[in-house]
Amino acid sequence: MNLNQELQLANNRLDKLRRKLAGALDRGDQAIAGQAKQEIEDINKKIHGLKTKQKRDLGKKGADVTSLPFKRALTKAEQADMGKLKKSVKGLVVVHPMTALGRSMGIKEVTGFAPKAF
Prior knowledge:
This protein is mainly alpha-helical. The protein folds into 2 domains: 1-61, Methane Monooxygenase Hydroxylase, Chain G, domain 1 (Up-down Bundle); 68-118, Uncharacterised protein PF10928, DUF2810 (Ribosomal Protein S8, Chain: A, domain 1), CATH 3.30.1370.150. The protein has 5 helices and 3 strands. Strands 1-3-2 form a 3-stranded antiparallel beta sheet, with no helix packed on it. It is elongated. It starts with a helix and ends with a strand.
């Protein structure tokens, strides 16, 4: 299971536990409420760890991409025919500003990173 799926499952479990806690508090069932609170704390710790790992992996990938010696913004024509561009440039990595990687790198326009000038 990948990191995003684990994070989604943990968030779903947290949502269920919060509803369970609300129901237990409405009923006045302190035993179940205490158990739900403990499980919520555990899930929150797990979610925090997963987000930290995700952020670290994203930073590492961003560092790998920025270490490529050549970068430039792609024109609209190049963006329209991305297949042709990727075939002509070996090792090209295209980063879009709306992806998680693009946001973490602070990119404002679609940028291509490559080992050689293109």
